[in-house]
């Protein structure tokens, strides 16, 4: 994936998207809050969406690090998954 500037945009209809700042490509992430959720969140939907996106990026980075570590220490011995 090439480096590009990303932006989080509230579309105003309960949908918040993460998209590239330049161009009109399809959103990378779409978060849609139901009417009930929007009432519960009051005016904080955008902040909740930002936290969700940040948590997702951090989780993806941690998984990538774990996969790298496993690949570099991979041996031919049997492995057990619990």
Provide structural commentary.
With 82 residues, this protein is an alpha+beta fold. The chain has helices at residues 35-41, 45-72; strands at residues 6-10, 15-20, 29-32. A hairpin with a 4-residue loop joins strand 1 (6-10) and strand 2. The chain has a three-stranded antiparallel beta sheet with strand order 1-2-3, covered by helices on one side. The protein has one domain.
Tell me the major beta sheet. 3 strands, antiparallel
N/C terminus separation: 33 Å
Report strand order across the widest sheet. 1-2-3
- Backbone structural class: alpha+beta
Listing every helix as H and every strand as E from the N terminus to the C terminus, the arrangement reads: EEEHH
Total of domains: 1
Instruction: Count helical runs.
Output: 2
Q: How helix-rich are the residues, as a percent range? A: 40-55%
**Averaging pLDDT over every residue, what do you get?**
86
Which runs of at least 5 residues are low in confidence (pLDDT < 50)?
none
Number of DSSP-assigned strands = 3
Strand composition percent:
15-25%
Radius of gyration from CA coordinates: 18 Å
Q: What is the global morphology?
A: flat
Overview in brief:
The chain is an alpha+beta fold and 82 residues long. The protein is built from two helices and three strands.
């Amino acid at each position: 994936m090439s480096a590009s500037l990303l932006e989080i945009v509230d579309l105003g209809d309960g949908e918040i998207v993460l998209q590239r700042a330049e161009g009109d490509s399809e959103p990378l992430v779409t978060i849609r809050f139901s009417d009930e959720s929007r009432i519960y969140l009051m005016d904080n939907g955008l902040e909740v969406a930002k936290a969700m996106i940040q948590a997702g990026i951090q989780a993806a980075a941690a998984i990538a690090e774990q996969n790298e570590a496993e690949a570099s220490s991979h041996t031919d011995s049997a492995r057990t998954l619990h």
